[in-house]
Fold this sequence. Notes:
Elements: E1 3-9, H1 16-28, E2 32-38, H2 44-51, E3 56-61, E4 75-76, H3 78-83, E5 88-92, E6 95-99, H4 102-114, E7 122-126, H5 130-141, E8 146-151, H6 154-164, E9 172-177, H7 180-187, E10 192-195, E11 218-221, H8 228-235, E12 239-241, H9 244-259, H10 265-277
Parallel strand pairs: 1-2, 1-3, 4-6, 7-8, 7-10, 8-9, 10-11, 11-12
Antiparallel strand pairs: 3-5, 5-6
Helix pairs in contact: 1-9, 1-10, 4-5, 4-9, 9-10
The protein binds NADPH dihydro-nicotinamide-adenine-dinucleotide phosphate (NDP).
Amino acid sequence: xxxxxxxxxxxxxxxxxxxxxxAAFEKVGIDARYELWDRAPIALPDAIEEVRGDDFLGANxxxxxxxxxxxxxxxxxxxxxxxxxxxxxxxxGRRLVGHNTDxxxxxxxxxxxxxxxxxxxxxxxxxxxxxxxxVVYGLIRASFQRVIxxxxxxxxxxxxxxxxxxxxxxxxxxxxxxxxSIIESELAKTKVLVNATSTGLTGDETPVxxxxxxxxxxVLDLIYAKxxxxxxxxxxxxxxxxxxxxxxxxxxAAFTLWTGQPAPLDVMAAALKQARAGGVTSxxxxxxxxxxxxxxxxxxxx
Length: 302
Ligand code: NDP
């Protein structure tokens, strides 16, 4: 029987995950099909019930369901519990286990960008949504000592900081109001800047002005495209990466959870590149604007 894995989101029209996972199943010789399920929030409980069936290896969960799915499943891993968000489901009989593979995906991407040996201990994070939770928890786990979170709506960043309270007790984790001058002064004290907002996903906008970016910075944008932020940062002499490595490694971790096999990373990376060349810029299927490649390489594969 052909096994099934589904991506449950809203929308999921053009999925990078689909291309990457299907290529991996084929490479490893697993008879499985990766399906896209566009389900509005009201249809989520029924979708989750269906995934309990024997024909499913598991599922991916994406925007806007990563947090909403938590009370619908039976068991959470430590990362899912800590972030309060689930992006991967596995089955134990009819019981569902929730994982958050965005956390290890982010940590691998950061390691590749910066180099584990010279990992700084302070970071500025823009955004306070689901992606940001995985980033901040990844930074906590990577022993960062100071993480400052800026968000358009400050209360959301404050709520996130409170949420992490105990896991961040050993370090300084703070929410600050979104003012350019404050971001600039925090950037001067750090080497790592992570954009976990969706600014730049559907248009050529940037969350921060080019003038405050410096050559010392490592800039990671979770968006899978050469955003204006990354182009500005590269022009300032900073080291940059887009969200592709994080997407690849969260997908690789999910593949291993479903199949018990090591993920064929090269094949998955090639499938991702091909899907991106076709203009897909979001795992969630939003048709983002394909940003012109003006800098000769994303700088992602550090
Ligand atoms: P959420 O919807 O949970 O959060 C969106 C974030 O973007 C919030 O912080 C929101 O701020 C901010 N934002 C949205 N519009 C604006 C704006 N105009 N100005 C300033 N801030 C804005 O989304 P996610 O956290 O899940 O995703 C965020 C981005 O990260 C997306 O582009 C997504 O594709 C990417 N991502 C990539 C992953 C990867 O594997 N590479 C994994 C997860 C996400 P506010 O709270 O004030 O509304």
